[in-house]
Amino acid sequence: MLRVTINGQPREFVEGLTILDALRSIGVQVPTACHDDRLKPYGGCRLCAVKVEGAPRPLTACNTPLGDGMAIETHHPEVEALRRTLLRMLAKEYPRQAVRQFPDKEFHRYLHQYGLADELQGAGDPDRVDDSHPYIRVDMSQCISCYRCVRICEEVQGQFVWQVWDRGSATRIVPDSGGAFADSSCVSCGACVDACPTGALEDKTLLTVGVPTDWTRTTCPYCGVGCEMLVGTREDRLVQITPVPDAPVSRGHLCVKGRYAFEFVHAQDRTTQPMVREGGLWREVSWEEAIATAARELRRITARYGPDSVGVLGSARATNEENYLAQKFARVVLDTNNVDSCARVCHAPSAAAMKQMLGTGAATSSFDDIERARTILLCGANATENHPIVGARIKQAALRGARLIVIDPRQIELATYADLHLPLRPGANVPLLNAMACAIVEEGLCDEGFLRRRVDGWDEYRNFIKQYTPERVAPLAGVEAGGIRQAARMYATEQPAICFHGLGMTEHVQGTEGVMCLVNLALLTGNIGRPGTGVNPLRGQNNVQGSAHMGCEPSNLTGFISLAEGRSLFERVWGTPLQTAAGLNLMQMFDAAAAGRLKALWAIGYDVFLTNPNAEATRRAFEQMELVIVQDLFLNETAKAFGTIFLPCTSSFEKDGTFMNSERRVQRVRKAIRPIGNSKPDWEIICTLARAMGREEFFAFRSPEQIWEEIRAVWKAGAGISYARLDEGGLQWPCPAEDHPGTQVLHAERFPIGERAALRRVDYTPTPESPNEEFPFLLMTGRSLYQFNAGTMTRRTKNSLIRPSDVLDVSPGDAGRLGLEEGARVRIYSRHGEATLPVHVSTAVKAGEVFATFHTAEIFLNRVTGSHRDGYTGTPEYKVTAIQVKRA
Ligand code: SF4
């Protein structure tokens, strides 16, 4: 311990603090302009200087280590005079109006505190205002050169947009475009705005709507990273979103979707009145009529065709509590296990492979393991676009020296930071990963001790994997054998090594097998069960992990417990018998509908028509249904084309509950505004419909917390997670008791299936779809930073100004051969359908391969994708479709 005197008071502190850390820990405040807890200490503005006995001049508190025996005075007249002088210099020509408009800005508070606000004479300079960005207003007449924007863009986001040009009094901060901010490489994360103490960089909503009057802490409604955010509201309207400084996942950072894409909540076309369709036309009705109609129709259909003629789809954007109720409704009210969620079309293969091989179908580690790992293996995951905060953390780790291996057909952004990029042929994950395993075995790089202690099947596996030599696999996978061997050596020897994978692994006909190969690699090298190791699916939507885990799964109950294993517990807790046979998964529901066996579907928060592959097959199936209940914020494409009843639900900003992120962390969702119009939270709608169906006793919930209490009763691994505990921060399951701290890393001592896990011999079955003369290009589909999934939310925000449309990425060579220039419109044809979209000439894709996103309803890219599926889970092949490209 260090003994220190502060303002005459003796104090004790642990070692390793700066003077500023120590002052703040005891509530003593000194002004700081250049300091930000998210950044390395800088010591540039000198406002935090304090008087330290024996020091020849005041010392900057932010970057001076606290020393034993120091006697510190924080507000000695000498340092106060220095601060006033420094502030006066910083505020020279500072616009007086800005201080009046936003008195609570950090720098403005100091000006008031030191009596300088009324001295200001500056009038601002319109020539220094850049209004080009949709979300951020730049006014460099308010810049005080603290460089927080420059540093946060480098040290947190890793984007290097803001640059310092010129020297001395000519110094200025400019975007890397050298011109308009909108033309820079900015990814609109808003970190610079958040860091700016003055308002030189400002969210435009503050200038147009006004500063928030209330703040609510909640969890982001977009991707599965699970960033926590502060939602600023004014008169029941969302005004501003800022990051939570101490959030464990996002650490004071957000991406463009979390930070700015909230305007959809108040969109003009938000549908907030229930509707029923009659004679092809929608008619607004009361909630009573909508619910009575839905109940009557469900009763009619189940009475006529049986309980398994109905399917329910939970929602990755609804809360855990709501997904729990959706599956309980299917099982208890409708008496069917026909319940699923969009996990089917994304990470069902991860859950299946990891559950089978390790005993838990979820990420084995945590995002904090990114910083603990020496090697990061990124497979089929474009993290900087689809999981931007994780992407930024991986980028920072690589910049700090971690080894990064990227396996991806495209030159994604993180590939440019990687030690090694293996641009494999799409669909070749299994042979490539097997070849890495073969190299590890051949070169004696296995963790023999780990294999002995914790792994079965070693002898059989060793014999099996011999055939997958890198040299044999290289032509098939489209990468050099030397690269495969290098990746294998790096992953096996530069430990601890962690793996993150995305839909480039799972949305293949070999999706489950690909994940099994990743688990094999981890078992061979002992890269599991320790900090900095593990196999981690990056989940796409905010609560896709939760929707499946809460039981929106045809063969698993809440907690991902199989029907056979869990049925008796659920029958006891729910007090009713349950169906024993597994239900239909999402894809099987559409097969059954096409065959005339499934007659009704209730799709909650899920635009299934736009996002399912092979839209024509989906259309034919929908056309056979007699009832399609759509529950959403907007009349989505499914509702427009096939809906018969529309139930308007609320966004996550309008309700309470919990989400579960990719690393098994349960976090609170909190209501920031009242439900818009006549919309209701999903949980209330489900309970009301259950009551109308005569099952009130099973759905007598009055709050999300009551629902959560029932979830804790059936889900042992979550039994220790209470709302009271979640108010202190998120908890990662397993967390079986209220005194359990939660689990960051799984499988440390044993696997849930026992002491040992078994290696799996995974042979390669090629993708049935392949290019030929008629369809010479291979189309991969995916997502972009600015749009989210079906675009239901993001396309109603200014993100659409930044990315207005899906585009087809074509390599420069192919574009040249086809005579296509940037922006040319092309028609693409596959064996399944066609679509028209603009071209983007991109060096990220290889010759013969093209890439497109699927967010734009007018383009409807899933008309082109096909019907091939993963054999274990039914997850569709979205990444390999043979197409023809022609100028439109
Ligand atoms: Fe939201 Fe994901 Fe962006 Fe975080 S990274 S702000 S969770 S969309």
**Can you summarize the main beta sheet?**
7 strands, mixed
> pLDDT below 50 for ≥5 consecutive residues: which ranges?
none
Distance between the termini: 73 Å
- Output the number of helix runs: 32
Number of strands: 38
Radius of gyration over all CA atoms, rounded: 28 Å
Lateral strand order in the biggest sheet: 15-14-28-27-26-16-17
Cα shape: globular
Helices and strands: which structural class? alpha/beta
Write the SSE topology.
Layout: E1 2-6, E2 9-13, H1 19-25, E3 49-52, E4 59-60, E5 71-73, H2 77-90, H3 96-101, H4 106-113, E6 129-130, E7 136-139, H5 148-157, E8 162-165, E9 172-175, H6 191-195, E10 201-203, H7 204-208, E11 214-219, E12 228-234, E13 237-243, H8 256-260, E14 275-278, E15 281-284, H9 287-305, E16 310-313, H10 320-333, E17 339-340, H11 348-358, H12 369-372, E18 375-379, H13 383-386, H14 388-399, E19 403-407, E20 420-422, H15 429-442, H16 448-454, E21 455-456, H17 458-465, H18 470-477, H19 481-493, E22 497-501, H20 503-506, H21 511-525, E23 534-537, H22 544-549, E24 556-557, E25 561-562, H23 563-574, H24 586-594, E26 600-604, H25 608-611, H26 615-623, E27 627-632, H27 637-642, E28 645-648, E29 657-660, E30 665-669, H28 682-692, H29 704-714, H30 723-726, E31 731-732, E32 757-758, E33 777-782, H31 799-802, E34 808-810, H32 812-818, E35 825-830, E36 834-841, E37 849-853, E38 881-887
Parallel strand pairs: 1-5, 16-17, 16-26, 18-19, 18-22, 19-20, 21-32, 22-23, 26-27, 27-28, 33-37, 34-36
Antiparallel strand pairs: 1-2, 3-4, 3-5, 6-7, 7-10, 8-9, 11-12, 12-13, 14-15, 14-28, 24-25, 29-30, 30-31, 33-38, 34-37, 35-36, 35-38
Helix pairs in contact: 9-28, 10-28, 10-29, 11-21, 15-18, 15-19, 15-21, 18-19, 24-26
The chain binds iron/sulfur cluster (SF4).
Iron/sulfur cluster binds at residues 220, 222-223, 225-227, 250, 254-255, 257-258, 387-389.
